[in-house]
Amino acid sequence: MSNNLLKFLFLLITAVPIFAQKKNSFDLICERTSSVTSHKDLPKAIKTADSLYMLAQKPSEKIQSLILSSELYQHAGELKKAICYSENAHSVINQINDPERMAVVTRLLARQYRQVGLYERSKKYIIKGLEASGRITDFQKSNEAAGLLNQEMAFYEMELGNYSNAIRFIESSLKYFEKINSRNENRTAAASYQLLGDVYFKLNDYPVSENYYRKAESLLKVGSCTLGLVYNGLGGIRLKQKNWKDAELYLKKAEKIADTSRSLTLKKAVYSNINDYYEGTGDNFKASLYAVKYVRTYDSIAARNHSFTMKGAEIISKGKTSKKSGQMNLVKNATIVVLFTLLVGLLFFFRTKQKKQRSKFRNIIRAQLNMISSRSNHPLKQSDNSEFSNISVEEIDEKDSETDRRRNDSLMTSETESKLLELLEDFEKGDLYNNKGMSLSFLAGELNTNTKYLSYVINQHKSADFKSYINGLRIKYIVDKLINDEKYRQYKISILADECGFSSHSKFAAVFKAVTDYSPSAYIKYLDAENQSDKNVHFPEND
């Protein structure tokens, strides 16, 4: 009798946790997939998340699995798919009253749209999330959601250059974080302090910026992405102060985190600062290495954003139809088709207008180039007072006198002159003039002639001395790149200088302004203003 009683008690005791485990098994699998499996085997974690969606019975479980899929794809760098899942989760939440999950999903969407450059759409989700956070009954969760959304709004204001507004939203986020008591409090507060450090850095208030970076550093664990941004910020301050030793120390710490991180934003910021460090210390070889790293990272970000922009409507459509096609009615599908058609039409219109504007501006610049190159019939005589020709590539050395040129004129046959002119025209069609080792003797060797003949033909037929001729070709090359390839407008001026053969930022900027009457940054700003329509692509809300 006592044995049977003991067995009954054992079954009764074990039944409760087993039942509880079954009841919470969905949540447990989601949590484990997010915190453990994703770090060990990301593809496996994504498959698990898809399986969880198929097993989900309640709307809350479907939302949870969709959010998990979105976060995993974002972690993998596939923002198109991440946004698709987030939009799908948002559609499901709209069918139920769940302000807590609404705050989570809208913040996720706000961050994802910000990362692909759709800032106004990001702002719409922030506002919607803030409204939802006010309806959350749990005090802790309500304040945490409001703090995170205020933090996201600060990012939005920073993108617009409204730094005072950004500071106000960050300070609001910190006030919300002070009210909560959770294991994430330090990490979320640290992100706000790091963001404040960035804002004051942009305002050139380095002591205040460093103070906030230090606060963030004290709250963070080793290896976090935010800590990488903090070290990069501290390194940036030391660069401004020309404290090369400390700058190197912080930037090495930042690079160590960036190299193991999936964050392209962190990599881009760190490689940019390290490039500046080596430029400042005069190590051109290492500066070039990090310039390449920076460009590759930028290209990855640009490719990701461009791919999303071109297929944005398709993503939203898939996000609405994937895994819930039976719930979408005919009217909604028709609305999407109409809106998509209008979007394509608007894009085509703005693209056509933009190309005409670019063509017009390109013609203006080229007219300036031609006018400058023909200012004098005797270009060598004006070299003493020409703002353009006396800024040369260091390797160029031309010392021919007027007497030499006259003598060469009598020695060179007309056939040789014509052939050399033809070779120069072929030379102009390539990009050999961007070679940093370019000189009069180098080009003469390439064209199988001598420096005397080459110098005479350039002066006689190109209305310029050799260094002005080469610099003009280089500036025309980079102008065409800036007009026709948007990624070049995002490059640092030092990288543009390196691209077209100049050894320093300052020499390139001086030649560019002398040729075009614009500084490189002013010229890029003009082109970006013309191109702004591309960055304001809007997709219809799925409310």
TrEMBL record:
Q: Which residues form the HTH araC/xylS-type domain?
A: 418-526
Instruction: Indicate the transmembrane segments per the record.
Output: 330-350
The domain of life is Bacteria
Instruction: Name the segments for region: Disordered.
Output: 391-413
One Pfam family linked to the record: HTH_18
Q: Which UniProt keywords apply?
A: DNA-binding, Membrane, Transcription, Transcription regulation, Transmembrane, Transmembrane helix
Keyword Glycoprotein included in the entry's annotation = no
Would the keyword Membrane turn up in this protein's UniProt record?
A: yes
Which InterPro entries does the annotation name?
Homeodomain-like_sf, HTH_AraC, TPR-like_helical_dom_sf, TPR_rpt
Query: Which SMART domains did the record assign?
Result: HTH_ARAC (SM00342), TPR (SM00028)
What's the protein called, per UniProt? Answer: Tetratricopeptide (TPR) repeat protein
Which organism does this sequence originate in? Chryseobacterium sediminis
